[in-house]
Amino acid sequence: MIRLWNCALTPPAKDFVAEATRRPGQVWLIGNEPDVSEQDNVSPQCLAERYHDAYTALKRADPTAKVAMGGVVQVSPLRLKYLDQALAAHESRYGDPMPVDILK
Prior knowledge:
This protein has 104 residues and is mainly α. 44% of the residues lie in helices and 10% in strands. Strands 1-2-3 form a three-stranded parallel sheet, covered by helices on one side.
């Protein structure tokens, strides 16, 4: 799992890229309940940007890696709106839909 605390990748990219290189084919979870103050607690824009950074770095290091976006705390209209905002932020910033191999 790669956390998004304070809108920063934790562990840093150099560390998880080294691990992805050593252990190809792993599943990587980016973020953990990013919408909850007791967990990653990041904005939809931050989620989109840091997810993009981690996904790109992981796929460059190991094209066989499977990358999952951490789920929201519960399925509700408010939480689904958060996800919609994150997906829209990614598409707006990068011009493509958010590439998610697994949605937890």
